Amino acid sequence: QLQLVESGGGLVQPGGSLRLSCAASGSIFRLGAMAWYRQAAGKQRELVATISSGGVTNYADSVKGRFTISRDNAKNTVYLQMNNLKPEDTAMYYCNVLILGVRPSDYWGQGTQVTVSS
């Protein structure tokens, strides 16, 4: 039902920037809370940032001051602006809706790869 399509990843040098997009479609009349996750190779998936339906945001300590999550409710799209990227930001990035405000849905997208390297 729910479809999530991430885009915007790529290869960037340390200190560079990327803007990720997540388009939601297929099942929803409206979006509730949304989140960005990332998973580095061989590591657990971690929560990067969340944004409520009203636009309240939260960030992992590792990205505070560098990443900004935002949303365009009219377009059912969530963004992640990533500045001052570091090699440790290298991961596959996924978005998802948060069921009951805490649990990601079962409908994961394909993700978008972010690689930070010189």
Highlighted features:
single chain; 118 residues; mainly beta; 7-stranded mixed beta sheet; 4-stranded antiparallel beta sheet; globular
Give your account of this protein's structure:
With 118 residues, this protein is mainly beta. It has no helices and 11 strands. The chain has strands at residues 3-7, 10-12, 18-25, 34-39, 46-51, 57-59, 67-72, 77-82, 91-99, 103-104, 112-116. Strands 2, 4, 5, 6, 9, 10 and 11 form a 7-stranded mixed beta sheet that branches. A hairpin with a 4-residue loop joins strand 7 and strand 8. The radius of gyration is 13 Å and the shape is globular. The chain starts with a strand and ends with a strand. The model has no long low-confidence stretch (mean pLDDT 94).
Radius of gyration: 13 Å
The main sheet comes to: 7 strands, mixed
Instruction: Return the structural class.
Output: mainly beta
Q: Please trace the helix and strand order, writing H or E for each element.
A: EEEEEEEEEEE
In whole angstroms, how far apart are the ends?
40 Å
Mean pLDDT: 94
Total E-strand runs:
11
Number of helices: 0
Low-confidence stretches: none
Can you give the helix content as a percent range? under 10%
Strand content: over 45%
What is the 3D shape?
A: globular
